[in-house]
Design a protein that fits this description.
The chain has 320 residues and is an alpha/beta fold. The chain contains ten helices and 13 strands.
Length: 320
């Protein structure tokens, strides 16, 4: 029996989606339960998935087996001391907070739980944190995504997809977006409502709240996927891989977990400066054949990452 723990606060959060996709995959071979560790659990997620809150008063609690915490932890809570001891304890660390990783690896003596097995989601994250652990890319059902089929009677379109948080957008992207619009490029940003005060209205600018369209639907409307964050560090960046699964050329800042899988100029593009990003986007705008070739390699890359053999090997880690 496997118990998956997550805050389940955001229907569009990478950690929440990772937990739900792992639940879907593991449920084929095992009995799997979902547990919310946050009091602010999303009502939408509670309605759509069998997520439960730990309740000591009703004794609705995990009852042993394998406990997997994804982007959440058990510290500063009473119930871990009162529920059955897990056979295995796995912590999927999908953020960049060294303090939390040290807390979860130092087990209080009274708890008497087994040592935590650490799962990281990228080699980039492992290098940054300088810790040992098993690396599993965040699970994604790439069959939801297919190469786009766009008509030729539409403007060249650059876009991005993310949550709409202050750390998700880089301030230097505002002048870049303004330049792209001035040059006739259409711009679509889902998770971009927070940019309304920074960007002047434009007939080819569309800003949407998170979740207005499914990822697979939104990505089909783009020619190029562009991605850079502000202070938020992407230890993986699932939206980048979803874009690659759609056969999109991705243009991303080099500082992120996705960079381990992008070979510059072959299956995507990495940049350091805004000027470099602008040049790459201009080259892609002028060369549809380049977009198609890089997009094809991008799709092949995610097919390798999420091949049936690779996914099976990762799932077996949890099932043993």
């Amino acid at each position: 029996m496997i118990h998956l723990f997550n805050g389940f606060q955001d229907p569009f959060g990478g950690s929440d989606l990772e937990a739900l996709e792992l639940y879907r995959l593991l449920s084929v071979d095992s009995e799997v339960h979902l547990w919310a560790t946050s009091s602010s659990v999303s009502g939408e997620l509670m309605r759509n998935f069998p997520i439960r809150r730990v309740s000591l008063s009703k004794w609705d609690v995990p009852n042993g087996g394998t406990y997997v915490f994804l982007g959440s932890h058990w510290r500063n809570k009473i119930w871990p001391y009162l529920i059955p001891r897990p056979r295995r304890l796995i912590y999927v660390f999908n953020t960049f907070h060294p303090k939390i990783i040290s807390l979860t690896r130092r087990m209080p003596g009274m708890l008497n739980w087994p040592d935590a097995e650490l799962v990281l989601i990228s080699d980039f994250q492992r290098r940054m944190l300088q810790v040992d652990g098993t690396v599993h890319p965040s699970p994604i059902d790439i069959e939801r995504f297919s190469p786009r089929r766009l008509g030729s009677d539409r403007p060249f379109t650059v876009g991005r997809l993310s949550r709409d948080g202050p750390g998700k957008h880089h301030p230097d992207d505002i002048p870049l977006y303004e330049t792209l619009l001035a040059e006739g490029t259409a711009l679509r940003i889902q998770g971009g409502i927070g940019l309304k005060d920074s960007l002047m209205p434009h007939p080819q600018l569309e800003l949407f709240p998170p979740g207005q369209f499914s990822a697979e639907e939104f990505l089909q409307t783009l020619d190029v996927f562009y991605y850079r964050t502000g202070w938020h560090m992407e230890t993986f960046g699932r939206v980048v891989f979803e874009a690659m699964a759609c056969g999109l050329p991705v243009v991303c800042h080099s500082y992120g977990g996705y960079s381990d899988h992008i070979r510059h100029g072959e299956n995507g593009f990495l940049f350091e400066t805004t000027q470099q990003a602008a040049r790459i986007l201009a080259d892609l705008k002028a060369d549809p054949a380049l977009r198609a070739a890089v997009g094809l390699k991008a799709r092949q890359t995610v097919e390798q990452i999420y091949s049936s053999q690779a996914v099976r090997q990762r799932l077996d880690f949890y099932l043993r």
